[in-house]
Amino acid sequence: MQRRKLMKLSCAAAAALVTCSTYAQVVVPPSADPGALQQRRIEEDQRRLEQERLERTPAVAPVIEAPKAPATAPVASQVRFKVNAVKFSPASEVLSAEELKALADAFVGKEVSFADLQRLAEQVNAAYRERGVVTARAIIPPQDVSSGNITLQLVEGKLGEIRVKGNESTRASYVLSRVDAEPGRLVDLPTLQTSLLRFNRTNAAQLRAELKPGQSFGSTDLEIGIIEPKQHNFRIGVDNLGSEVTGETRVGLSYSNQSLLGWRDSLSLAAMSASGLKSYSVDYGIPVSRSGGRLNLAHNQDDTQLKYGPFASLGITGESTSTALSLRQPLHFGERSQVDLLASLRKRDVENKVSGVFLSSTATQDVQLGVEYQSSDDSGQWLTSYSLYKGDAKTAGVSKRYTVGRGALRRTQFLATGWALRGALSAQHTSSDELPSSEHFFLGGEGSVRGYPVGAFSGDQGALLSLELHHPITGPSAEGSGQAYSAAGFFFVDTGQVRQILPPDSTQDKTKRLTSLGWGVEAAMGRYLSARVTLAYALRELPEQKRRYTASVQIYSQF
User: Fold this and answer.
1) For the chain, which residues make up each domain, given as ranges?
2) What does the radius of gyration of the chain's CA atoms come to, in whole angstroms?
3) Order of strands across the sheet with 149-156?
4) How is residue 30 annotated by DSSP?
5) How does pLDDT run across 394-445, given as a tens digit for each residue?
6) Residue 379 and residue 376: Cα distance in Å, rounded?
7) For 81-156, CATH number?
8) pLDDT reported for residue 20
9) How high does pLDDT run on average in the chain?
10) Is 394 exposed, middle or buried (CB count within 10 Å of its CB: 0-12, 13-18, 19+)?
11) Beta strand ranges found along 432-484 (DSSP E)
12) Which of 282, 319, 338, 437 has the highest Cβ tally under 10 A?
């Protein structure tokens, strides 16, 4: 009896050792790692939000409507008199005494008419306009000119009341704190225009200003109108852009509030589900400086299960949790350009299990510092960025530091009406070995080489080039026109390469290259429903690839 029990215990121990040995040999590929799947989903959202931001970015400074200066009444020029001295009253806060004297000296000691004095007043007004002070003017008051001492009155209009209108979800105090204008100050048009441009570049809401005559003599009121986007936005979508191992068909739901507390602070909630994927995210962003700085706090949770592919039978599940604090701070504003500082702190924990038994875990922490430049001209837009990441990855109790550099360059070239050429180049480099899977550069899928499955290849270093030629199919829907359908197509070619880390005795080529081409269409079907279909053909067939073409479909509704 005792002998039989010992045999059972021995068999159980042997089975456990075999099971553990089997699990120890399981290595989750980078393309199936929950951290990598999560990072690709985050980058997918970032590309969409970046495109929306570029589309709403104003190209030039907003126009400020100013009241027209009153027309000068014609006067008879027959009466002439000698000018002995010219006095400007009161003293100007805009033009120096030397500037005014230089203008007046051309008339002192000469016989002039009232028409000549009006010409002097116009020269002073032109000097005001050059300084951007459109509410200041010189006038000739009624006076006795027989002595030859002439007085020009300077009316330098100051701001009276400042009003904000149209702000349903934005606090007036938020707008006023970011517009360079105060009651009692001179109206400085260039400074006011710069502050409006800065606001419009860094907020979804857009401002315009109008100067109106004030209640008292010499005063000017400022009326700031704000055009706000919808405060509440819901988005429901279905697509087949998911990973082959967790399920290509995905369903997503998201909600965003564009001004939660009235400070143009945004809150976004999102959830996505596939056969082997459950992901949740929350993001809150708030302005932190008058110059347009914005701080974002994001949290993402992804639960995965490898339902398809060679690992499906092992019951591999994974979990990835990440929290990131990021800052975007404008450093420079030009009339058609902008430079932003990018910085972030990020923490991610990834864990994998086999049939409920712990397999592996990786904890990463990194900091990012980068810069982004965007500009526009009459024929298109440029966007370029570069960021350096320094981090630490801890696996099985062993920490390893890494440094990664990522750069991107995009150009949109407007052609004929409805036609545009878009080019995008992105690259990643590192001197570190064996980056965590979430930091790999991936090829394949939407936003990459579209003729191949998501994550077909990955490596520590890589580059991607995409070219798209957009063309019209139907005319765009006009607001309120009742047109139910509009569509545009695009031809594209994608090519990319990655450099993999292989064992020293491997005979495989470390560099993997992929190229695909195809055509797609984007369609608006009514006010709330949109779709995007992409047909791509792979120029190189991979052994594990089911077919050399892919058909990607996205259908989503926003309301």
Assistant:
1) 81-156, 158-227, 230-314
2) 33
3) 85-89, 149-156, 136-139
4) G
5) 998 899 999 999 999 999 999 999 899 999 999 999 998 889 999 999 999 9
6) 8
7) 3.10.20.310
8) 45
9) 88
10) middle
11) 441-443, 457-459, 461-472
12) 437
Q: Dump pLDDT digits (tens) for 435-473.
A: 999 999 999 999 999 999 988 999 999 999 999 999 999
- The Cβ of residue 186 has, within 10 Å, a number of other Cβ atoms equal to 20
Angle at 469 between CA 467 and CA 471, to 5 degrees: 160
Contacts of 279 (CB under 8 A, 6+ apart): 38, 41, 270, 271, 272, 273, 300, 301, 302, 303
Helix residue spans in 342-443 (DSSP H): none
Cα 306 from Cα 313, distance rounded (Å)? 9
DSSP letter string, 491-533? EEEEEEEEE----TT--S-SEEEEEEEEEEEEEEETTTEEEEE
Domain 158-227 has CATH 3.10.20.310: yes
Q: CB atoms < 10 A from the CB of 305, how many? A: 19
Q: Is the fold of 81-156 the same as that of 158-227?
A: yes
pLDDT of residue 57: 65
DSSP state of 203: -
CA distances (Å), origin 237, targets 454, 536, 550 = 19, 21, 19
Instruction: For residues 6 and 55, give the distance between their C-alpha atoms in angstroms, rounded to a whole number.
Output: 74
The pair of structure tokens assigned to 121 is 């007043």
Assigned token pair, 336: 């058609």
From its phi and psi, is residue 331 left (phi > 0), alpha (psi between -120 and 50) or beta?
alpha
| Residue 34 preceded by cis peptide, ω within 30 | no
281 neighbors 298 (Cβ within 8 angstroms): yes
- Concatenating the DSSP letter of every residue in 330-342 gives EEEE-SSEEEEEE
pLDDT of 485: 85
Beta-strand pair 219-227/529-538: unpaired
Please, which residues bridge with residue 210 across strands? 65, 223
Tens-digit pLDDT profile for residues 301-339 = 999 999 998 888 889 999 999 999 999 999 998 888 999
User: Hey, what are 224's tokens?
Assistant: 């700031």
Alpha helices in 94-238 (DSSP H): 97-104, 114-130, 172-176, 189-202
One-letter identity of residue 121: A
Query: Residue type at 155?
Result: V
